[in-house]
Amino acid sequence: MSRITKQFGTCGLIKPSDQCFDDFISPMINFVFFEDPRNVTELRPIFVNHRIPDSLGGGDIQLFALQFRVALTERLSLIAVKDGVIIDNTGGALDTLLDDGFADVSAGLKYNVLRDVQSGTLASVGFTYEIPMGSDKSLQSVGDGEFHFFATAGQRLLDGNAHVLSSVGYRLPVDDEVQSTSIHWSNHFDVKVTNRAYLFTEVAWWHWTDEASTGLPLGVAGQDLFNLPTTGVDGNDLVTQNVGMKFKPRRNIEAGIAYEFPLTDFQDVIEDRFMMDLIVRY
After folding, report:
1. Which residue among 2, 48, 122, 281 is the one 20 to 30 A from 175 at the CA level?
2. CA distance 21 to 52
C-alpha cells in the first residue's frame, strides 16, 4: 500500500495518515457508522458473521467488505464505509426476502475540527451518502438511498495507555416512505495491555425516530447493514455491546476481533455478531 500511495502522494493527491495519534485504535461496533475521528489513509477489509434472532427464523448472514479512507489534506478525508458481498443463510421470514448479493456503496467526507496533540483530543464531523446500487435480493437498493450525518471524538487517557471514542449520527433516507429514520450513539473504551495489544469494549444505542410509511409489518429495521422497508419500528430502542482485542504489530497495521450481543429485550435483527478486521495505513 505504501508504494501505491507514494505514487499518488508525489502528485499531491493523497496525504499520509496523522501519526501523532498512532496510540489510538479504530472502533469496531456499528462499523458502518462509527467513524474514527483521526484523519487517515487506510484500507480495511472486514468479515462479519451476524446471527439472526429465532423470532425472525434464525440463521446467519456473512459480510465480506472493504472500507477505505483517503486523507486529501491535513484535515479533510474521503471515506468509503459500506460495500461488499452479503451471503444469506437465514430462515423463516427473512429467508423469503433475503438472498446472496452485493451491499450498497456508501461514501462521503470527514473533516477534523479539533486536533490537540498535547492533550490527545480529537473531534471530526462529516457525512456519507449511501448509493442504492446493491442487489435487490440482498435487501439493498431500497428507495433513493440515504444520508448519514455524524460527529465523532476521541480522548487519550493515562499517557496513551487508555482511550475513549464517542460518536453520534443521524440516518436520513431520501425516500422516507420505504425506509426508516434513526439516530445512534456509539462509545468505545480501550486499555493497552502490552506495547502491541489492546483490550476494548464498546456500546451502541439505536433509536428509530420514524418508520417507513409502507412495507411489511415486521417491527425490525435492520440495524447498521440494512434499512428495511418495514413498519412498526417507530420508537424502538436497541442497545448492543461488544468485547474484543486489537493487535498492532507495527504502528500502521492493526488487526481486531470482537464479539457483539444485544443488551435490550428488543433485538431488532441481531442475536449476536462475530467480527474481524485488518487495517493497513499509509
Report:
1. 48
2. 37
